[in-house]
């Protein structure tokens, strides 16, 4: 398989602390790769190494099948990026910020208007970025990353500090990039739900180690939400459900349905009522990122 | 390289800091106008009196200090809001960024020197000095002063990349510049102190047989040597800096 990004044994140590350990990242073309992990997991450090901003302690990075150490400039010609908080020159306007970068890349001046339009900042092109809201700065950062028509776009927590409507806007923007412009996108986040809504491939990193890397469908199996029933005499209720051929778990207090389709939940409730149990609660249990991690590690899906 | 330099100039030109280039020449002008021919004892040529008193303050203090401020400015907006990481993730080499910023700085110092040349000329016009403008001496002083700041610019650029704060590189600059006032009077240390070189090389009272009023070996060893040291230091540091 041809990968747009492939790291081998990528490792970064800060003193004694191992921020990234033996990372094997594999990103196929045209994917939106969700790089998921809690704060401090090593996402930003990894991204810095992908861009050559920081040298790995060991290991290698290949982008577009080229060695980053040897062909950094040729690679970065086709990479757009936004690392951690949005970067900008506070003394310049939005348009001037892009112009300062455009002079280096050498794309036509009209490209500035185009990217400002893509992120819907064309009305504030002549305003100083200093006074921008966090969301506007993020969008300007994305505009800057699109300036060179990249084939690979790397966005590090691009929805950080945005309000819900801003998040939706950025999500919609990112989702159309692979289709509209043939880009491959890496997007990092510490929010499971965010990755779930955008990514097509997922890499989960925890304490610097990649603990899962597969398609979003595979990950959803881990992140599946459960429906929990709180009933009177839960053990007998559980046995009654099993006797009627339903799949369920029991853990001292609660019954968990393994098939949580609407239909299945309704059937289970119907049977329990019929069999004379009192139903106190029917709840959906959202899994936290930690739960998912725990399960991933437990099931040894280590990659 | 040209695209990077054009971007650097663009960023700096929008920072409204360029008026600072006027400070040194203005101070020079003021001192030149107040320096009095009579109470300085006088010499054969009034220009010399003017030049000596103007150069003292300008070359000893303002030239090196303002050079440092300029170096801080071209790095300040990179430090402020993540400029470095955005800039260095672009398809360019760090070496070219360093050299571009350096060339921009020395070009600005040259502009400042030329403005100072204008100040000298203006003093002569305003005071109505009868003798002809001593261009053959003054150009040596102007150009020599510029050459002498080349290592200082390199060090200040290094310090400005190293320190995120505006004050730290300025403090380094002041710490090395202030002793110049004592050092220039010392026959033993004066010739070897890099921060004293702008003064020595602008000092028209020096040996006019030498190019730039200092001996060639002093120019090569002190100015050339400190340039190599500071430029290589900053260049290599920037190569390895994690951003
Ligand atoms: N420049 C640095 N120096 C020392 N430690 C660092 C540096 N950058 C990151 N770290 C440490 O490396 C770990 C990973 O950080 P980071 O990559 O920023 O995580 P994430 O982006 O996933 O939140 C953290 O423990 C952080 O403290
Ligand atoms: Mg981060």
From TrEMBL, chain A:
Keywords of this entry: ATP-binding, Nucleotide-binding, Transport
Stated family: Belongs to the ABC transporter superfamily.
Source species: Gracilibacillus ureilyticus
Entry keyword annotation includes ATP-binding: yes
Pfam families assigned to the protein according to its UniProt record, in alphabetical order: ABC_tran
Top-rank taxon, per record: Bacteria
Family matches, as InterPro entries: AAA+_ATPase, ABC_transporter-like_ATP-bd, P-loop_NTPase
GO molecular function, one term: ATP binding
Domain ABC transporter: 5-232
Protein's name in the database: ABC-2 type transport system ATP-binding protein
Automatic annotation (TrEMBL), chain B:
Keyword tags: Membrane, Transmembrane, Transmembrane helix
Transmembrane keyword on record: yes
Stored Pfam families: ABC2_membrane_4
Membrane among keywords: yes
Protein name, UniProt field: ABC-2 type transport system permease protein
Sequence intervals crossing the membrane: 17-37, 57-77, 98-117, 137-159, 166-184, 219-238
Species of the source: Gracilibacillus ureilyticus
């Amino acid at each position: 398989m041809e990968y747009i990004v492939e790291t081998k044994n990528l490792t970064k140590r800060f003193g004694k602390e191992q921020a990234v350990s033996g990372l094997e990242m594999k990103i196929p073309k045209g994917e939106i790769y969700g790089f998921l992990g809690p704060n401090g997991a090593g996402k930003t450090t990894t991204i810095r190494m992908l861009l050559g901003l920081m040298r790995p302690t060991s290991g290698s990075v290949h982008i577009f099948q080229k060695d980053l150490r040897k062909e950094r400039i040729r690679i970065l010609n086709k990479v757009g990026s936004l690392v951690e908080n949005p970067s900008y020159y506070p003394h310049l306007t939005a348009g001037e910020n892009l112009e300062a970068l455009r002079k280096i890349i050498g794309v036509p001046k009209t490209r500035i208007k185009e990217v400002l339009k893509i992120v819907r900042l064309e009305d504030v092109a002549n305003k100083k970025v200093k006074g921008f809201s966090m969301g506007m700065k993020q969008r300007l950062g994305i505009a800057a990353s699109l300036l060179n028509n990249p084939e690979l776009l790397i966005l590090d927590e691009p929805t950080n500090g945005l309000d819900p409507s801003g998040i939706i806007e950025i999500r919609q923007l990112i989702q159309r990039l692979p289709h509209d412009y043939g880009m491959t996108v890496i997007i990092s986040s510490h929010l499971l739900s965010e990755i779930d809504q955008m990514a097509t491939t997922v890499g989960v990193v925890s304490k610097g180690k990649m603990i899962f890397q597969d398609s979003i469908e595979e990950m959803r199996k881990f992140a599946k939400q459960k429906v929990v029933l709180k009933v009177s005499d839960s053990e007998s209720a559980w046995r009654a459900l099993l006797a009627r051929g339903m799949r369920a778990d029991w853990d001292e207090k609660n019954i968990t349905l393994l098939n949580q389709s609407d239909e299945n939940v309704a059937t289970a409730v119907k049977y329990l009522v019929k069999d004379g149990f009192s139903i106190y609660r029917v709840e959906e249990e959202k899994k936290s990122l930690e739960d998912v991690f725990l399960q991933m590690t437990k099931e040894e899906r280590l990659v | 390289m040209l695209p990077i330099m054009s971007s650097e100039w663009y960023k700096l030109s929008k920072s409204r800091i360029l008026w600072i280039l006027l400070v040194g020449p203005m101070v020079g002008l003021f001192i030149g106008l107040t320096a009095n021919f009579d109470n300085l004892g006088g010499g054969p040529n009034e220009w010399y009196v003017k030049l000596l008193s103007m150069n003292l303050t300008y070359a000893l203090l303002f030239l090196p200090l303002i050079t440092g401020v300029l170096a801080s400015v071209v790095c300040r907006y990179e430090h402020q809001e993540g400029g470095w990481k955005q800039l260095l993730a672009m398809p360019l080499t760090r070496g070219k960024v360093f050299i571009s910023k350096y060339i921009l700085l020395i070009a600005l110092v040259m502009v400042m020197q030329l403005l100072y040349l204008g100040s000298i000329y203006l003093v002569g016009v305003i005071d109505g000095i009868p003798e002809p403008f001593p261009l053959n001496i003054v150009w040596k002083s102007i150009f020599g002063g510029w050459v002498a700041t080349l290592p200082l610019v390199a060090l200040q650029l290094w310090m400005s990349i190293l320190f995120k704060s505006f004050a730290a590189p300025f403090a380094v600059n002041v710490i090395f510049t202030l002793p110049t006032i004592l050092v220039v009077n010392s026959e033993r240390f004066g010739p070897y102190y890099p921060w004293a070189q702008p003064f020595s090389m602008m000092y028209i009272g020096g040996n006019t047989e030498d190019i730039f009023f200092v001996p060639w070996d002093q120019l090569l060893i002190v100015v050339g040597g400190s340039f190599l040291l500071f430029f290589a230091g900053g260049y290599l540091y920037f190569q390895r800096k994690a951003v």
